[in-house]
Every structure is written in structure tokens, then in C-alpha cells.
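Q: How would the C-alpha cells look for this protein?
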Amino acid sequence: MQGSIHKMRSYTHVIPVLHTLYYVVIKSGDMIPTSVYQTVYECLMKLLILPSPYSAVALSVLRNIKMEMTTPGSLYQRKVTAEQNLKNDYFTVQEKVFVFADPAVFSASLEAALRAHLEPSSFLRDAPTMEKNVVLRVLQTGLGTTCHISRLTQALEALGEHMAKTYFEEVVLAVEKSVEHGAGGRAHYLNKLQDIYRDILTASKEERTKIDGGSVCSTAMPFPEINFLLWREEEDLWNLLANFAMSSCSNTTSVDEEERNKKNSAQSEGSDFDVTVQSPVKSNVPAFIQRNAYKNKILADTLSLMREKMDTFPGSSPVHEEDRGRYTARVVVMGDDRVLGRLSRAYHSIRERESKHLILTNKLNLRFYYIPVTDVDPSLSSPDSPCQGEGRLSLASLLGRVDPWYNSNVNSLGAAISKLAGKTDRSKSRQNFFLLDTLCYYLRCGTQSVNLPLYSVKMTRPSSDACPEVEEVFVSHLEADIPEFRHLKENVSHRSFHRPKKPTAVVFGAVISVSFTKISLSRRELAKEDAPMTYGVVITSGEDHLTVRFKSVNPIYNTTIKTQNISIKALEHRTLSVCLDKDSRRTYTGVQRVEISPCLDAGCSRRSSFSVLHDQELLFSKYLDKVLSLQIKTFTGVTL
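A: Here is the predicted structure in C-alpha cell form.
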């Protein structure tokens, strides 16, 4: 990890420059000369020789710059149309932003203060005004000095909603045709904009009414609508995403009905295709055609799940969202390591559901963003904390190390949010756009994923227990200890402040049995079993491995190993207490055995009983990393 971070530091200045360049282009309302674009284009071409992910970021910006060169105003039109959910017949991409705040971190006062800062995102959201703004901006950017802004602004304000909608549709159509034709369609595109400009000025004279003195048209980049909620129930995420995905359908079928229909139409794969079920209406379609159609559907669903995996790999070039014609949900979670733990469990549940019946995958692009917020002063963290100096923000610290631009923008934003509690002046909050501006910059420019691997946890309890086996996942941290020995932990913590004269005598024998596969320095794996004299085990995730620290009352037995698989068993009728991702809400007691291994992605583990389909699935999945990762968007991106 340290070596990879050191290699990236020599290129870190490239990332801020590239993202700032892109942001200036979409926010600037002025026509940028072609010569400037050409110079930028040549510079970007030279950056493609950089290692990934820098070349990937450069390529993304290069494509956007090329599109803006041939179709001025296209980046603004597409981004605003998607973010504001402006309905039209030619560019149907839509986006929604959901902000989930962890109630364990957000007090009532902090929640109220944050809501006040996010409120401006809901101002002036009427579609006609937004459509007029898009027309104004595209014509201004495309026509340059030949466009009289004041006259065009007055003309647009004089138009009725129906006429404004018509011209908005014409502008969107002109942009999409120009993007499709590339550089060869630039001249026709500019001529079309000139025709639209003249038509608006002519039509406004016919419809002109008395106009108020204040202008409502603006070419400034509007804020996307922010949907904020406290994340109290895990199902909240699924429900919001499913409802958003279903809104993309032309019918009004509910999510529950959709799931029931899928279950009724597609029987379990273990029984292949159930042709014995008779329909009350006799079908004229031959059975073999139905069977082939079902095979194709299974393969298509499997490839869709695999495509999600491939698209989120850092440095990859995913298919453009607008080319898929799907909606995009941007999910922002605010909190500490605990909220990422909840997100990991919710995402794991989503992938398992999708592997059985596709509800979201073919309709929705899912993007995760993380803003670290804590309710604890870092200076007050315990000196024997598992992540000393980081407390419950260990993953935020990790993201900041691998991506300095994330650290400068997002980690600093989280620190500012933590200080909002108690600031109740709502009028000043509405006028302070720092939080919204930074959030929007992160949403629009955070395009590269840091893949945080998830680990599966299988906990076994006594057979007499109502739930003898529990399966969970964690992303950052697992701690297991024996409750009856916690007083020993406190004693060791107290003695750590004083220099011991002699090693402490051993006070008990082996109470925990551990079986694991140790990763040596040579990267070879050695099977080993051990029974250290410990009162607890602390496990943290790292670069493709877990770091396991055994805690003993005798410092001699405080050992650390690196592994990917480990099994922990309590001896002598004792039981373990297991806490996941430092979240007391995810604490399990009475556990006899804990088995930890990399969490497999259900979407890549799906198998068909059809032999032909099975062979094709193996062909596509052979080179895929089957471990499920939580993809957090940053500015640089890296795989851990």
C-alpha cells in the first residue's frame, strides 16, 4: 500500500488540474475559442501515457472536451437535463441524489443545521424555468458574440410554457444529433442554433406581455435536488432505489408487483424451465422457442450483473450512462466507519436480490459517495484504539491517503459539517453555499472508484439458540472478545500508561482456538493453527488481506498476522462477543465460532443449470475478481 501511494504522489497534481478544467467548462457560460480547446486537447493527449488511473481520468476529460469542441453547450445541457429530470424525447437520462445520514452521528441540532444548508437545492425547481435556462445557455455558448444575451433573455421570459418547451426540445435534439455526428456535424449544429435563436426572437414579439423587472433566467449551473434523510432502517436504501428505478418504466407497476411477476415468470434455475405449468390460455408459441427465450434471458441477466462488476474497476472505460438509457442514483452516506458498514451490508443484500431477480441492475446506475462526519473529537480518541489517531474514521483516513484531492475537498467538508451543530441561524445557512458547492463538485467530478473489499462473517451459536447461524459482512473492522475477560483488557489499558518492570505472568491458558492461512513475506501461504492466550482479537481490512492482532494480558503473546481467511473458536464452553465495523448496533453475543473469508459477489457467482449457458458464463467470469467490493467514488480511484 505504501509503495503504491508513493508512486501516485508524483502525479497527484494532475488530478486537481483535470477535474478543475472539466468543471470550468461546464460552469462557464462564455464561448471558449476553438484554439484554446485545441491546445487543451493536445495537452490531454500527452497525459494518456500516464499510468492508470491518471490516464483514465485524462481520457474521460479528453472525451468531454472533444464533445464540447464539436457541440458547444452539450456538457451543460446534458448535465442539467439529467440532474433536473427535465422530460424530453431525445435525452432521457435522469439522476437523483440521496443523502443518508447516520443517526448515531447526527444529533437533532446537527441534522437541523445540515438540512438548512441543503435547502437551497430545492429552490426554483420549476421545469419551465430550467428549460429556458438550458436554451439560453446553449445558444449563448454556441453562438458567442452573435447572440444578444439581454434580448434573448427577455424573449425567453416572454414565451409561454408550451413555446418554451418546444424550443427546449429543439435544442436538445440539435445537441444529440451533433454529438452523434461528431466533428462533421458542427457547422450544421451552429446553423440550427442560429435558426432557433431567430425563431425565439420572432415568437416572443407575438407573445410578448408585460414583463416584470426581475429576470428569472440564468445560465448559472443549478444545484441538483438533494433528498436528505436519516438512515434509520436498512430497507430505506432499497425502497428508494427501487421506487426510482420503477419510475423509469412506462407503466405504473409497483415494485412488489414487479417482484411477484418475476417470481411467477421465472421459476428456480434448479428445475431449469418448468414447462409442466399449464396456462389457462393455450399458447401457440412452441415450447422450444419459449425454452430458448428463457435461456437468453438468464444469460442476459448474468451478463448485466457481470457488466456492473467490470464497469466499476478503476481505470476501466465503462459504457456511457446516457448510452445505456438508464437512470443514475447517486447515494451519499454521511457518518463514520459505522455508516460504511451499514452501506456494505445493504449493498451485499442488493446484490443477492439482483442475482435472483433483476429489479435495479438493468434500469439503474448505482454510485456511492462517502463524506466522513464524526461526533467525537479526534483528540479524545482512546490511546489503545485499534486505529490510533483515526478513531472511527479509519476508512476516511485511508481514502485521504490514496487520493489527496479527496482529502482536501471531502475530508475537509466532513470536518466542516461536524462543526455545524448549534448553528441555528437558518437565514445565514441558506446564503452559505460552501457545503452545497463542494458536495456538487464531488458528485460531478468524483468519477473514479476506490474498491473496498468486503469480508463475509459466519457466526455459529449453540444449536439450542433460535438462530444458530448468522451470516454478516464487514468492510473495515471486526473485534471479538470473551466478555468475562474484559476486566483484563481494562487492566492492560491502565498499565499501558506505566512502564512495566517485568513481563506480566500468564493468568489463564488457551481460551481461543484460531485456524488461519498465514501470508508470508514471500507471498506464499502457509497453513497454520494456533491457540494464543488472548482475551480478544481485533481484525482490520487492508490491501488484499486482513491484519489480525491478538490481545493478551502478557505482552509477549501480543502477535499480529496477515491473512485472508481465519476461523476463531471459543474453548471451554465460553462464548465470544463480536462487534462489526465498530458499530454497537451490530454486536452479536453468545457466539461459539467465527469464520471470516472474502465475500463473494452473488452477481458473479450465479450459475445456470443449462450446460451451454454455464460454459458461456464461465468464459465471461473467468477473469473477473469475484470478491464483492464497496465502490466509493473519489477523484483518483484505486483498488485495495
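The CA atoms of residues 13 and 405 lie 9 Å apart.

The chain has four domains: 1-70, 102-124+225-247+324-377+393-453+600-605+621-639, 126-207+216-222, 455-494+506-598.

Upvote if useful.
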